């Protein structure tokens, strides 16, 4: 079954959480990651890993599940858009 809409990439949501005036470089330093890594997430070029979810949850006072669930929803929708693989249902030998 296909999802009803294209869910937001977690980077899109993260951009809304970062305060105006805080640079990507400053945010990355506070998170303890490289500017390049954070920029890739913010631009939808990289996903949120479990490690990053823990960092974001501590930094933004959220739960890691917020970020993991958002990433999983985005990943699943993207995979569904590529089409389902031709996989037959499991059949046990009689």
Structural description of this entry:
With 94 residues, the protein is mostly helical. It has one domain: 434 Repressor (Amino-terminal Domain), CATH 1.10.260. It has five helices and no strands. Helix 2 crosses helix 3 and helix 4 packs across helix 5. It starts with 9 loop residues before the first helix and ends in a 12-residue tail after the last helix.
What's the helix-strand series?
A: HHHHH
Q: Can you tell me the CATH topology?
A: 434 Repressor (Amino-terminal Domain)
Chain-averaged pLDDT = 93
How big is the Rg? 17 Å
Question: What's the architecture in CATH terms?
Answer: Orthogonal Bundle
What distance lies between the first and last C-alpha atoms, to the nearest angstrom?
A: 30 Å
CATH homology superfamily name = lambda repressor-like DNA-binding domains
Helicity, in percent? 55-70%
Please state roughly what percent of the residues sit in beta strands, choosing from under 5%, 5-15%, 15-25%, 25-35%, 35-45% or over 45%. Answer: under 5%
Q: Label the structural class.
A: mainly alpha
The biggest beta sheet reads: none
Residue windows where pLDDT falls under 50 for at least 5 positions: none
What is the molecular shape?
Answer: elongated
Number of helical stretches of at least 4 residues = 5
